[in-house]
Every structure is written in C-alpha cells, then in structure tokens.
Specification:
- With 437 residues, this protein is an alpha/beta fold.
- The chain has 2 domains: 15-290, Aspartate Aminotransferase, domain 2 (3-Layer(aba) Sandwich); 295-436, Aspartate Aminotransferase, domain 1 (Alpha-Beta Complex), CATH 3.90.1150.10.
- It contains 17 helices and 14 strands.
- Strand 2 (107-111), helix 5 (116-123) and strand 3 form a beta-alpha-beta unit.
- The termini are far apart.
- The structure holds pyridoxal-5'-phosphate.
- Residues 89-91, 115, 117-118, 158, 162, 187, 189-190, 209, 211-212, 221, 223, 374 line the site of pyridoxal-5'-phosphate.
- The site of pyridoxal-5'-phosphate (PLP) has 17 residues, from helix 4 and helix 5.
Length: 437
C-alpha cells in the first residue's frame, strides 16, 4: 500500500498526489470523505493534549477534518507554502487571513483593482471590526509605500485582478511590505498556482477562492489561506496575536511554540475556532477532485481565452479588449514575468454601444451562461455594471475596470469554434437591436 511522491515533484504530480496517500485503514486510493463532526479520544490524557495544542489530531470538524486537511496540504504544496487553512469561501479566507494581523484601529492597504465583492467587504464591513481599508492604484507600487502608516498591518493585492485582466508587480509590492515590516497578502484566485506562485516573488500569504479554477467545475464554494512560513512575527511589535502569549492556551506564544507553522495553527486554533467559517468535507473533496486536472484545464482555458481575445480585438462591435496575453496589452510585460504560462481565462472587453448593448449581449448568448462566477469548465459571461459591481458608484466601477460598457468573460474548455460562434452571434444581435431603436 506504500505510495510516495518523487523528490522535487512537478506541479502536475503535486496536483494529483500532494497530501493524499492511500487510506491506511482500507487502502481506498481516492481521498475518503470524512463526513463526521467529531473524533473519539483515546483517553482523557489524549483529549487534554489535543485541547492544549500539544498533539496534532482531530477534535471537531470546525477546527480540523481529515478530508479538509488533504486539501490544505495540496494547495499549500502547489503554492510552495508551509501550511494551509481551508475556509467556507474566498471571502471567509480574506477575513481569516487578516484576523491574526489586525485589531481595532488597524489598517490594510489594498489595491483598488480587486474583485467587486472584496471591495465591498473591505470598504464597508471591515469598519464594523474597527479595521480600515485604504485603497490605492496597484499600477504604481509606490502608491502602497505612500499609504502605509504606523497602523498598517498588511498589504493586499490580487496577482491577476478580477475582472480587468490586470497584472500587479508582485515583487515590487513585496519589497514595500518588507520595508514596512508587514506581510504581503496576495489573492491568487484568477491565476491559480499553476500560472503564478506569489510566494516565489516575495508574498507572505496567499489567498484563494477555491470556488473558481481550483474546484473548477462550478460545484463547491470554498476558500484557502496559505502561509509561506517565512514571515518573522518577532521583527516588531505589530503582531501580538502571534508574538505575545495567548491567554486562552495557557499563555503559549504561537510564533515561539509553532515556528513556521504558527500562522496556520493560529488559523485553525483561534481563527476557525472563533469565526467558525470552516470548509465542509464534501466541498473539500470536490475541490480535491477538481485540482487533479487543474494543469490540464488551465492550459485549455488559457489557449481558448487567447483565441477569443484575438477574435474580439478584430470585431467591429468591440471597442477594446483587456487581456494581458495580447502583445499589445499594457500588462503584457508583467504577465510574461509573473505568469508566463498564460494570462488566465477571465478578462474584459468593451462593447461599442455601452450599457444597453452590454445588457443585450448577455441576454443573447446561447452557449455561454449568464451568471456570477468564474473559473468553470463552462464559458461564462456577465455585465459587471448591472450585476457584480452594481453596488459601487460609477466612478468606483470605472476605477476597477467595470464601467458601463464592460463585459466580463470566463472562457471555458469547450471547442473554441463553438465559443467564438456564440460570441459573434450575440454581439451581432445586440448591435442589431441597438440599431433598430
Ligand atoms: C470569487 C472571488 C473571491 C470571493 O470568493 P468566494 O468564494 O465567492 O467567497 C475573492 N477574490 C476573487 C479574486 C474572486 O474571484
């Protein structure tokens, strides 16, 4: 029943094997779904050691679960990180990642080009925790340095920003974070670790909405926090949650007791324990299954997206295309540096007729699904200004690449000719309806 991963495995090998050995009790080769809330203690001493964090093991599935643990190990391995904490959703992952770092009055400096939901979460709900988000344009890394204050505890960016196909200079922003003695958090949802590994470029913590390309089939909402294990929590007095004794665990100091796994263990022992946003075993299993084919899917996603971007660039009903894979794109050089294997499959373009044409186009597609998700095997389309970004003001919409004429595509893995045919007929029919008015 022995099974081992070769030394220095490639990404395709990790995607299939990392974290997942045959089940020691049954030999089951696929990871079992441990659909259980709790775990029997061997005796009272065993229980006490688990509760004291002296022994690794399972107590209750809000904290840890064997199926979820395989997912945590697999994504951490893919990212080149030390450990992972799976969460109920990508948004839960963002809160869980900031929770050990922030206290009332503290600040996070975030890119203003982010997933619309993240702008809402940070711009509005964080205030209820006393946290303050300061948004800056990530195109110039100096903007982050200028916004950092004594109260700044983290910098937050997306490697490949949703929805606009924007690539951030990760290494330059990492340098700003390093100078300030604070961690850089990178949401790597759109690029995935197959295309981009932020930790190799200086990121300290990587965040995922596993809902998207990692699960890949549009089946399971989930999130992940991966810690690099390299941030020194004792370098200053900014992070007492990790560098000072924790009263609820008999005064143990996480960073001292757990070293490079401190952030990950805090994420379970306090983060998931108290915030409760754990991932279900079933969702973890669906996501593991998805990750097995991540490299194959991403290659097809990227090739199809490139072909669609080139097609749209030539289309008379299209005014612009923002896809970092195109030679002419302003982010192409950064894409070549940070994600040379492909620019992902989510990008935006502008329709010549503006808001009305955008709405008509999403109603005219047949193969594409009009819905609020990305990273599915199926091709997806949305008009952000009338849906995902409608809570934002028009200025905010434009600032984050979701103005009235913008259509966002998430190109699937179907036959490329079918994808292009559908977009062409939808663009023509939207333009004809406009002309008829
Ligand atoms: C979807 C998404 C999120 C939020 O994730 P959920 O799983 O929907 O909570 C965060 N960041 C990015 C880039 C996303 O695409």
């Amino acid at each position: 029943m022995s099974q081992s991963i070769p030394p220095k495995p490639g990404v395709e090998t990790l995607a299939v094997h990392a974290g997942g050995a045959p089940d020691p009790h049954t030999g089951a080769r696929q990871t079992p779904i441990y659909q259980t809330t709790s775990y029997v203690f061997e005796d009272a001493d065993h229980a006490a050691s688990l509760f004291n964090l002296q022994l690794p093991g399972f107590i209750y599935s809000r904290l840890t679960n064997p199926t979820v643990a395989v997912l945590e190990e697999r994504v951490a391995a893919l990212e080149g990180g030390r450990g992972g904490t799976a969460t109920a959703s990508g948004h839960a992952a963002q809160i869980l990642a900031l929770f050990p770092l922030m206290g009332p009055g503290d600040e996070v400096v975030a890119a203003n080009k982010l997933y619309g939901g993240s702008l809402n979460q940070m711009g509005h709900s964080y205030k209820k925790f006393g946290w303050k988000a300061i948004f800056v344009d990530p195109d110039d890394p100096a903007n982050f340095a200028n916004a950092v204050t004594d109260r700044t505890k983290a910098i937050f960016i997306e490697s490949l920003a949703n929805p606009g196909g924007i690539v951030v200079d990760i290494a330059a922003v990492a340098e700003v974070a390093k100078q300030a003695g604070i961690p850089l958090l990178v949401d790597n949802t759109m690029a995935t670790p197959y295309l981009c590994k932020p930790i190799e470029h200086g990121a300290d913590i990587v965040i995922h909405s596993t809902t998207k390309f990692l699960s890949g089939n549009g089946t399971a909402v989930g999130g992940m926090v991966v810690d690099s294990g390299t941030f020194d929590w004792f370098q200053n007095d900014k992070f007492p949650s990790l560098s000072q004794p924790a009263p609820e665990y008999h005064g143990l100091t996480f960073a001292e007791t757990f070293g490079d796994t401190a952030f990950t263990i805090y994420g379970h022992a306090i983060g998931l324990r108290d915030l409760g946003a754990c991932q279900s075993p079933m969702n973890a299993w669906l996501t593991l299954l998805g990750i097995e084919t991540l490299p194959l899917r991403m290659d097809r996603h990227c090739a199809n997206a490139m072909a669609v971007a080139q097609f749209l660039q030539e289309h008379p009903a299209v005014s612009w295309v923002s896809y970092a894979g195109l030679d002419s794109d302003p982010y192409h050089a950064l894409q070549q540096r940070y994600m040379p294997g492909g620019a992902g499959s989510v990008f935006t373009f502008g329709v010549t007729g503006g808001y009305e044409t955008g709405v008509r186009m999403v109603e005219a597609v047949e193969l594409f699904s009009h819905l609020a998700n990305i990273g599915d095997t199926r091709s997806l389309i949305i008009h952000p200004a009338s849906t995902t970004h409608r809570q934002l003001s028009e200025e905010q919409q434009i600032a984050c690449g979701a103005g009235p004429d913008v259509i966002r595509l998430s190109i699937g893995i179907e036959t490329i000719d079918d994808i292009i045919r559908d977009l062409d007929q939808a663009l023509k029919s939207a333009a004809a309806a406009n002309a008829a008015e």
